[in-house]
C-alpha cells in the first residue's frame, strides 16, 4: 500500500529542492566569474587538483603565440589611439559587428556604440587612460539592432606610443542565461506558494520541480563542458608555445614538460631532474663553460629564496650535440597554506643570441688588432719622418714614404670592408651593371699580383666572353680570391685562373696548389667574420672578404663556392649570368 506523504513531508522535500537549486545557482555564478576572470586577463594561471596533486596551467606565452591566441579567442579585441580610432582589431570583433575586418580597422570605435551608450562609452575610455576599467554597453551591428557587451579597457605602452586595449565580450548568452535563471527563481517561488496553499495538486507540483531540476542538471553539465573546453584550449596554448614550460617538484624533478621543453632537453615528463649535477643526459654549466653547482642553478636559487627568477642564462652541454644556451624564468608554487610544493619554469633557447654576442666580441677584438697594426706602423713612420725632417736621407725617406703608403692602403682596405658590410646589412649595396669582357676584368684584377713577381698566373678558357654585371664589384671578388690564394698558399707558385662558358652563364675559378682547407671549415668560409687558419697559423684580416664576395655574387643572381682537398689545393669559383 502506497504511503501517503503529509504536507510537512512535501514542504520539507520542496525546501531541499530549493536548497539544491540555490547551490547549483551559486556554482553556476562561481563558474561564470571564473570564466570571466580568465577572459579579461585577471587570471594568468590555473591550479587544478586532479586527485594526484596540483597541476598548474599557465595562460602566458611568447609574443607570437599571444597574437595567435588573440586571433583565436572568442572575445573581440581592439586597440585604440588617443582619438578613439581603431588601430588593430581581431577577426572576432569584426564578426561581432557584422563587418569585414578591413572596414573595422581605422574607424572610430564610437561608430559601433548605440546612441544611448555613447556618453557612457566616452566616460569609460577617458577613465581607462588613467587606469584599468570595465563596463557594460550596447554595440551596433549589421544583423541586430544592438547586442549587450562587456568592455574591459587597459592601456598599452607600445613602441609607437600609448594605446588602449579593449576586450569586448558578447553578453547575449549570459543575459539570456541570467534572465532564464531569474525566471526559474520566480517559478520556484511561485511553486512554493502554490504548494503551501494547494495540497491537492502536490503530485503535479513535484513533477514540475523534478523537470526543473533536470533542466538545472543539464545546465550544470553544459558549464562543466565549457570548463573542459577551456582546459583543452589552455593545453593547446602550452603545446604550441615557442618556449619550453615545465613544472617541477621541490627536488627539481620534472612532473610536466610541454612539447618545446621536451624538444630542448630531449626528455619526457618525469624523466630528469633539471639541476642535478649527476644528470646522465647533460651537464649544466656557467656561461663561461665552468661547471654549475646544484645550489647555483636558477631553479635551486628560486627554491632557496622562494622568489621568482627572470632571464637567468646558463649553458648546457649535451652528450650528443653541441653546447646550448638557455634563458630561464622560474617561479615558486605556493599552496593555500603558504607551503612550497614545487615550481614552474620556462626555457628559451638563446644559443643563437649568445653566439651572435660572442661573434661580435671576437670581431671587435680582431678589428681592434687589425686596425692597430697599420696605425702603429704609420705612426712610427711619421715619427721617423719628423725626426729627420731637417736632415732627410733620400733612401730612408723613400722607404718611410713607401711604408706609410702600404699602411694607409691596408687601413683603407679594412675601412672599405667595414663600409661594404654595413651597406650589405642595410640593403644599400648598389650595382652599376654594364657589359664587359671577362679577360679585361681578369687582367685588371691580377695586375698587382703579377707586379709582385712572386706567383705565376696561368689564365685559360673563354676570355672573350661578355657578361653584364658591375665590373668593379666583380673585380673586387677576383682580387679577394687572388689575394687569398697568395696568402693561404704562399708556396704555390702557380695560380690558375679558368673561364668556362656554360649554357647561360660564365664560371670563373681561381685555383692554387696549397695545403687545402679542412672539410669542417668549408661550410663556414663565406660566413661573416669567419677567419680560417691552417696548421695553427693566424692570418691577418677581418674575416669579411669572402662574405662580401658571396653577397656581391648573390646580388648578381650568381652562385659562389669552393672545392678543396687537403695536400692538393683549393679552387674558389663563382658564376654570373651572361645577360
UniProtKB/TrEMBL annotation:
<feature type="domain" description="PAS">
    <location>
        <begin position="62"/>
        <end position="132"/>
    </location>
</feature>
<dbReference type="Pfam" id="PF00512">
    <property type="entry name" value="HisKA"/>
</dbReference>
<dbReference type="InterPro" id="IPR036890">
    <property type="entry name" value="HATPase_C_sf"/>
</dbReference>
<keyword id="KW-1133">Transmembrane helix</keyword>
<dbReference type="InterPro" id="IPR003594">
    <property type="entry name" value="HATPase_dom"/>
</dbReference>
<feature type="domain" description="PAS">
    <location>
        <begin position="230"/>
        <end position="271"/>
    </location>
</feature>
<keyword id="KW-0812">Transmembrane</keyword>
<dbReference type="GO" id="GO:0005524">
    <property type="term" value="F:ATP binding"/>
</dbReference>
<feature type="domain" description="PAC">
    <location>
        <begin position="310"/>
        <end position="362"/>
    </location>
</feature>
<keyword id="KW-0472">Membrane</keyword>
<keyword id="KW-0902">Two-component regulatory system</keyword>
<feature type="domain" description="Histidine kinase">
    <location>
        <begin position="366"/>
        <end position="579"/>
    </location>
</feature>
<dbReference type="InterPro" id="IPR000700">
    <property type="entry name" value="PAS-assoc_C"/>
</dbReference>
<dbReference type="InterPro" id="IPR000014">
    <property type="entry name" value="PAS"/>
</dbReference>
<feature type="coiled-coil region">
    <location>
        <begin position="7"/>
        <end position="34"/>
    </location>
</feature>
<dbReference type="InterPro" id="IPR003661">
    <property type="entry name" value="HisK_dim/P_dom"/>
</dbReference>
<dbReference type="Pfam" id="PF13426">
    <property type="entry name" value="PAS_9"/>
</dbReference>
<dbReference type="InterPro" id="IPR004358">
    <property type="entry name" value="Sig_transdc_His_kin-like_C"/>
</dbReference>
<dbReference type="InterPro" id="IPR050351">
    <property type="entry name" value="BphY/WalK/GraS-like"/>
</dbReference>
<protein>
    <recommendedName>
        <fullName>histidine kinase</fullName>
        <ecNumber>2.7.13.3</ecNumber>
    </recommendedName>
</protein>
<keyword id="KW-0418">Kinase</keyword>
<dbReference type="Pfam" id="PF02518">
    <property type="entry name" value="HATPase_c"/>
</dbReference>
<keyword id="KW-0547">Nucleotide-binding</keyword>
<dbReference type="InterPro" id="IPR036097">
    <property type="entry name" value="HisK_dim/P_sf"/>
</dbReference>
<dbReference type="InterPro" id="IPR035965">
    <property type="entry name" value="PAS-like_dom_sf"/>
</dbReference>
<keyword id="KW-0067">ATP-binding</keyword>
<keyword id="KW-0175">Coiled coil</keyword>
<keyword id="KW-0597">Phosphoprotein</keyword>
<keyword id="KW-0808">Transferase</keyword>
<dbReference type="InterPro" id="IPR005467">
    <property type="entry name" value="His_kinase_dom"/>
</dbReference>
Amino acid at each position: 500500500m502506497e504511503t501517503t506523504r503529509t504536507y510537512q513531508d512535501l514542504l520539507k522535500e520542496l525546501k531541499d529542492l530549493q536548497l539544491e537549486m540555490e547551490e547549483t545557482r551559486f556554482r553556476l555564478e562561481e563558474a561564470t566569474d571564473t570564466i570571466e576572470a580568465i577572459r579579461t586577463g585577471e587570471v594568468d594561471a590555473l591550479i587544478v587538483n586532479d586527485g594526484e596533486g596540483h597541476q598548474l596551467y599557465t595562460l602566458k606565452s611568447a609574443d607570437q603565440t599571444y597574437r595567435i591566441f588573440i586571433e583565436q579567442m572568442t572575445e573581440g579585441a581592439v586597440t585604440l589611439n588617443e582619438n578613439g580610432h581603431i588601430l588593430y582589431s581581431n577577426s572576432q570583433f569584426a564578426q561581432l559587428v557584422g563587418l569585414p575586418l578591413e572596414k573595422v580597422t581605422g574607424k572610430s570605435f564610437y561608430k559601433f556604440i548605440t546612441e544611448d551608450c555613447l556618453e557612457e562609452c566616452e566616460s569609460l575610455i577617458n577613465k581607462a587612460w588613467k587606469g584599468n576599467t570595465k563596463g557594460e554597453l550596447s554595440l551596433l551591428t549589421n544583423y541586430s539592432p544592438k547586442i549587450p557587451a562587456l568592455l574591459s579597457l587597459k592601456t598599452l605602452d607600445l613602441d609607437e606610443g600609448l594605446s588602449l586595449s579593449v576586450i569586448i565580450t558578447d553578453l547575449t548568452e549570459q543575459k539570456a542565461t541570467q534572465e532564464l535563471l531569474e525566471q526559474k527563481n520566480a517559478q520556484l517561488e511561485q511553486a512554493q506558494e502554490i504548494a503551501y496553499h494547494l495540497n491537492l495538486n502536490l503530485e503535479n507540483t513535484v513533477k514540475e520541480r523534478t523537470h526543473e531540476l533536470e533542466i538545472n542538471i543539464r545546465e550544470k553539465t553544459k558549464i562543466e563542458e565549457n570548463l573542459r573546453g577551456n582546459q583543452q584550449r589552455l593545453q593547446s596554448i602550452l603545446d604550441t608555445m615557442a618556449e619550453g614550460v615545465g613544472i617541477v617538484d621541490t627536488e627539481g624533478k620534472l612532473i610536466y614538460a610541454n612539447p618545446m621543453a621536451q624538444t630542448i632537453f630531449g626528455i619526457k615528463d618525469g624523466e630528469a631532474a633539471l639541476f642535478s649535477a649527476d644528470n646522465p643526459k647533460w651537464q649544466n654549466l656557467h656561461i663561461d663553460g665552468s661547471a654549475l653547482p646544484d645550489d647555483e642553478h636558477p631553479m635551486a636559487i628560486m627554491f632557496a629564496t622562494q622568489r621568482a627568477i627572470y632571464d637567468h642564462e646558463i649553458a648546457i652541454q649535451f652528450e650528443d650535440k653541441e653546447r646550448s644556451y638557455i634563458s630561464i624564468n622560474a617561479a615558486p608554487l605556493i599552496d593555500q597554506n603558504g607551503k612550497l610544493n614545487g615550481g614552474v619554469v620556462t626555457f628559451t633557447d638563446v644559443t643563437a643570441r649568445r653566439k651572435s654576442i660572442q661573434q661580435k666580441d671576437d670581431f671587435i677584438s680582431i678589428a681592434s688588432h687589425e686596425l692597430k697594426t697599420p696605425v702603429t706602423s704609420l705612426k712610427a713612420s711619421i715619427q721617423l719622418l719628423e725626426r729627420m725632417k731637417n736632415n732627410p736621407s733620400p733612401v730612408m725617406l723613400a722607404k718611410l714614404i713607401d711604408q706609410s703608403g702600404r699602411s694607409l692602403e691596408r687601413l683603407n682596405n679594412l675601412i672599405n670592408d667595414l663600409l661594404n658590410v654595413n651597406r650589405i646589412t642595410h640593403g644599400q649595396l648598389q650595382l652599376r651593371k654594364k657589359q664587359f669582357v671577362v679577360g679585361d676584368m681578369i687582367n685588371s684584377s691580377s695586375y698587382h699580383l703579377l707586379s709582385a713577381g712572386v706567383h705565376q698566373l696561368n689564365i685559360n678558357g673563354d676570355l672573350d666572353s661578355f657578361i653584364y654585371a658591375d665590373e668593379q664589384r666583380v673585380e673586387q671578388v677576383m682580387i679577394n680570391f687572388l689575394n687569398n690564394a697568395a696568402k693561404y698558399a704562399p708556396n704555390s707558385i702557380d695560380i690558375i685562373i679558368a673561364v668556362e662558358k656554360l649554357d647561360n652563364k660564365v664560371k670563373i675559378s681561381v685555383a692554387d696548389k696549397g695545403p687545402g682547407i679542412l672539410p669542417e671549415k668549408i661550410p663556414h668560409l663565406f660566413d661573416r667574420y669567419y677567419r680560417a687558419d691552417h696548421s695553427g697559423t693566424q692570418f691577418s684580416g677581418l674575416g669579411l672578404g669572402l662574405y662580401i664576395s658571396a653577397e656581391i655574387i648573390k646580388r648578381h643572381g650568381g652562385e659562389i663556392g669552393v672545392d678543396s682537398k687537403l695536400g692538393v689545393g683549393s679552387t674558389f669559383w663563382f658564376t654570373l649570368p651572361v645577360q
